[in-house]
């Protein structure tokens, strides 16, 4: 019970504050959009930049950690992708969008916050290693597969597709922050102390502002029909992904305690808002993905508690 009260509920309480503020008309939609733009375009990139710049690259990028987490992520994708087509008879572009919701966990806002509250900042090295590949790899995979699904029968230009994928990935502020962090890390961190003091001030606002903003954004979502696909995505995100990750991490790679915690807690998170953004970008699967984000985020209060009890 202490894990629920001390670790998980404070995180969701901040989300709840944001939700309640918008529902009570204390903050408008434009105000929440401004908070999220600050968090996503400035504060969170500063957090990632600082964290990657100081990351011990040789220790963080463990093949077992990465394989365990991303094997679980792709298991979630293919379960939802084939389930959408074979069980719910969705067209392939819809299936790709729904699969993306089962693939893209909320590794940053929820994963970082819960891991830090449960195990301390010293346990976050594995989280940052996962996050550094999360958006570039998964967006690249999703965009490539969606473009292929939408282009079948009318040809596909390889260079054009690669250019579109590169532009979509490199235009994300989170990716820019990660890449700059790698550059500073590899250069031996030549930046002066006053620069890092400023970055730290912005970075400390990242998680609380982003969680509050996430609550405000969730007000816009509704649970609307398609309950079968929504439950499928929720199960893939909260059960299948962390279960595959836990099995590989413990039975195949025998990960250390910190790496195991980072991998499983991150895998156990609900789909991120990016799942809806991806669906909105292509205009397919929007209702399923929006409902899945809302339902899985609410249920993850209980499932995350369960996974914390399983972990050492």
Description:
The chain is mainly alpha-helical and 312 residues long. The chain has one domain: Na+/H+ antiporter like fold. 80% of the residues lie in helices and 0% in strands. The protein has helices spanning 2-23, 29-53, 57-60, 63-86, 92-103, 107-119, 125-151, 158-170, 173-186, 193-203, 206-218, 227-252, 257-267, 273-282, 286-310.
* CATH top level assignment: Mainly Alpha
Structural class: mainly alpha
Mass-distribution shape: globular
Total tally of structural domains: 1
Number of helices: 15
Largest sheet descriptor: none
Terminus-to-terminus distance: 16 Å
What is Rg? Answer: 19 Å
Give me the count of strands: 0
Helix content: over 70%
CATH topology: Na+/H+ antiporter like fold
Write the H/E string, N to C.
Answer: HHHHHHHHHHHHHHH
Q: Can you give the mean pLDDT?
A: 89
């Amino acid at each position: 019970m202490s894990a629920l009260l001390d670790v998980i509920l404070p995180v969701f309480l901040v989300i709840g504050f944001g939700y309640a503020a918008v529902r009570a008309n204390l903050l408008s939609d434009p105000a929440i959009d401004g908070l999220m733009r600050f968090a996503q375009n400035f504060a969170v990139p500063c957090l990632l930049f600082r964290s990657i710049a100081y990351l011990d690259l040789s220790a963080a990028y463990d093949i077992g950690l990465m394989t365990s987490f991303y094997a679980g992520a792709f298991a979630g994708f293919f379960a939802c992708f084939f389930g959408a087509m074979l069980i719910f008879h969705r067209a392939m572009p819809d299936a790709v969008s729904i699969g993306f919701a089962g693939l893209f966990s909320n590794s940053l806002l929820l994963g970082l916050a819960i891991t830090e509250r449960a195990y301390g900042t010293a346990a976050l090295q594995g989280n940052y290693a996962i996050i550094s590949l999360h958006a570039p790899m998964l967006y690249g995979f999703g965009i490539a597969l969606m473009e292929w699904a939408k282009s079948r029968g009318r040809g596909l230009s390889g260079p054009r597709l690669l250019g579109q994928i590169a532009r979509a990935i490199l235009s994300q502020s989170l990716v820019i922050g990660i890449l700059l962090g790698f550059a500073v890390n590899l250069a031996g961190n030549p930046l002066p102390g006053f620069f890092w003091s400023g970055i730290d001030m912005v970075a400390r606002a990242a998680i609380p502002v982003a969680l509050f903003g996430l609550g405000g954004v969730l007000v816009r979502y509704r649970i609307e029909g398609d309950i079968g696909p929504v439950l499928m995505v929720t199960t893939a995100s909260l059960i299948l992904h962390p279960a595959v990750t836990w099995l590989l991490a413990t039975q195949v790679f025998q990960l250390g305690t910190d790496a195991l915690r980072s991998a499983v807690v991150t895998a156990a998170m609900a789909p991120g808002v990016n799942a809806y953004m991806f669906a909105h970008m292509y205009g397919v699967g929007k209702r399923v993905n929006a409902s899945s984000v809302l339902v899985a985020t609410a249920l993850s209060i209980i499932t995350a508690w369960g996974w914390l009890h399983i972990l050492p």
